[in-house]
Amino acid sequence: MESGIKDIYAVEIIPEVIDVLQNELNYYVDDVFNQPEVKVFKMEGRRFLNESMEKFDLIYIPQKESAISTLKSAIEVSSFLFTMDSFREMKEYLNEGGIIVIEKNAELDFRGIKFKQYFSQFKSLGFVTYGFVNNPYYLDIIKKRVGTDDIDINKIGGLGRLIIIAYNGKMKKGIEDSLRYFLKENGFIEVSEIDSSDIMLITDDKPYNASVFSTFLDLKSIYTILLSFLPLIILLIWGLINFMKKRIYSYGISSKNFYCLLLSAFFVGINFICIENFIIFKLYKFLAIHLDAVFIGTIIFLILTGLGSLLLPTKKTPIIYIIIATSVIGYFVFNKQLFISLVIIFPFAILTGTFFPSLFWGQKERLFVVFAIDAVGTLIGGLISLFIPIFIGFKVFYTFTIFFFIGCFLLLAFYHQQLNPNNANT
Q1: Rounded distance between C-alpha atoms, residue 313 and residue 311, angstroms
Q2: Which of 2, 8, 39, 402 has the smallest number of Cβ neighbours within 10 A?
Q3: Which helix (H) or strand (E) segment is 247 a member of?
Q4: Do 104 and 162 meet the contact criterion of CB atoms below 8 Å apart?
Q5: CA gap 209, 201 in Å, rounded
């Protein structure tokens, strides 16, 4: 404001932060959020850009992180603000010669992964990109490929801050020299080269690439951990199948029907969690607040499945097949339209509610066993919902969920036929 800037837009996703800075803590920020030049918006950054239709000279993003928020990013997407898609949108809202500045704490990026990701993403989008750090050790980390074992733990606490500047167009020589001089006088060192061979770019489809899995662990370490648990998981599943087999055989069920029942209960559990997370993930992209998406998405899902259980018959009528086919086609036609693709999945959730009456039909003496198998499927569905988005992406998870639902639906129809060949559709 001292330099004569007339319009400043302050955007914050958490309303309470703005309220505190405008009132109780206004003294500590020089009452800046109550000045007439500052227009305050309590909303998510990307939504603000898309709704404002303004052009900007500067977009400044101070990324504030804590150890807790960084660890949380292992199981929830911390933000879609730093993806390639987001940077591409920001470029559209910059004036010629406009600048994007990201400033963050380097201590929680001690392998330099996020610095390399942001820097490479800006470069690939055609920005003239500058990077600055204020610690020589961090500069050495950025210049080479660094594994988890290569980090000197004793030096992490003093890594300081990093700044990335992305210029839309070619920066004038005088401005460029002044920028370098100013940052150098404040103890920053310019990054002239980076080793980006060990990074994965962050996209809307793979926002988990910015998570703790890439920040704290290299890919080799991640796969080693997963493979080390694989034999144990296989052993537990094998033991559980044999236990269930003995329990169910005691009720006089045939081997063929046992495996049909096992797969049906297992698939229903997986489908339940995958459909629920499908809704939550879509809502999160829409709402931008993870806890809100989990809370609202879970309520919506439970209401829809409850309605399906109470109102729809388990009988597989032709109209149900038409609804499924229409929903599948509609999703793949409108999958790029966030709200429509979310609503189209609702019939899947409603029909998922019919799976439970179908599954427990005719199993009065085996309810506990069927419920136990379904619970194991639910656990596996949770792991699928976690690891497919992290390592492969949301698009694959969405597609997997839709086709898995179809497979589950057809398997239940077969399951009914096996248990009661004379009345296959009831």
Answers
A1: 7
A2: 2
A3: helix 219-249
A4: yes
A5: 7
Report DSSP state, residue 5: -
CB-CB contact of 33 with 5 (8 Å): no
Up-side HSE of residue 240: CA atoms within 13 Å toward CB?
Answer: 16
CA 112 remoteness from chain centre: 21
Burial environment of residue 116 by CB neighbours within 10 A (0 to 12, 13 to 18, 19 or more): buried
Which residue type occupies 269?
Answer: G
With beta carbons less than 8 A apart as the criterion, state whether 94 and 59 touch. yes
Give the tens place of pLDDT for each residue, 395-406. 999 999 999 999
Q: Which two tokens stand for residue 213?
A: 């899995």
Q: What is the pLDDT of residue 422?
A: 47
Single out the residue of 270, 313, 273 nearest to residue 416, CA to CA: 313
The C-alpha atoms of residue 351 and residue 347 are separated, in whole angstroms, by 6
* Residue-wise pLDDT tens digits, 76-134: 565 788 889 999 999 999 988 889 999 888 777 777 888 888 999 999 999 989 899 88
- Please state the separation of Cα 125 from the chain's center in Å: 22
The alpha carbon of residue 280 and the mean position of all alpha carbons in its chain are separated, in whole angstroms, by: 10
Query: Six-digit token pair at 375?
Result: 């619970």
In degrees, rounded to 5, the angle at the alpha carbon of residue 276 between the alpha carbons of residues 272 and 281 is: 145
Enter the tokens of residue 275: 């459909």
Q: What is the pTM assigned to this prediction?
A: 0.80
